[in-house]
Amino acid sequence: MVNDPIGDMLIQVKNAALARKRSIELPLSKAKLAVAKILKDEGYLAAVEPVSVSEFPALKLELAYDDKTPVLTGVKRVSKPGLRQYIGKQDIRRVMGGMGVAILSTPQGVMTGKEAYKRGIGGEFICEVW
């Protein structure tokens, strides 16, 4: 049983990138799909699609590569099930000097730190990706 499905997804994507895999499949959930769509929009994933291979729905993620180098090089899970981290608009910071992306879960949905700052809202600081 997985206690942290988003953290598990992020680590599986990172490990797949390090192993130079083209795609991975994970159990589907709304939270994973929302985070995966942000990673696709930011260029870390090439494609995101829900699939129904068996009786359980799955999420197929295709990793993005620049030549043979993976675009995603690291992830850091900030808010964990045992210790949630909430930040306000003024506490949103740039990741890796603007080269990475912060992902937040706000009352208006899951979004990047840059978008949350523009809208003037804070929320749960899910993770950093670079």
Describe the structure using short key phrases:
130 residues; alpha+beta; Ribosomal Protein S8, Chain: A, domain 1; Dna Ligase, domain 1; 2 domains; 3-stranded antiparallel β-sheet; 34% strand
Can you tell me about this structure?
The chain has 130 residues and is of the alpha+beta class. The protein folds into 2 domains: 5-70, Ribosomal Protein S8, Chain: A, domain 1, CATH 3.30.1370; 75-129, Dna Ligase, domain 1. Helices cover 25% and strands 34% of the residues. It has 3 helices and 10 strands. Strands 6, 7, 8, 9 and 10 form a 5-stranded antiparallel β-sheet that branches. Strand 8 and strand 9 (109-112) form a beta hairpin. The mean pLDDT is 96.
Q: What is the secondary structure topology, with strand pairs?
A:
Layout: H1 5-18, E1 23-27, H2 30-41, E2 45-51, E3 58-63, E4 65-66, E5 69-70, E6 75-77, E7 86-87, E8 101-106, E9 109-112, H3 113-119, E10 123-129
Antiparallel strand pairs: 1-3, 2-3, 4-5, 6-10, 7-10, 8-9, 8-10
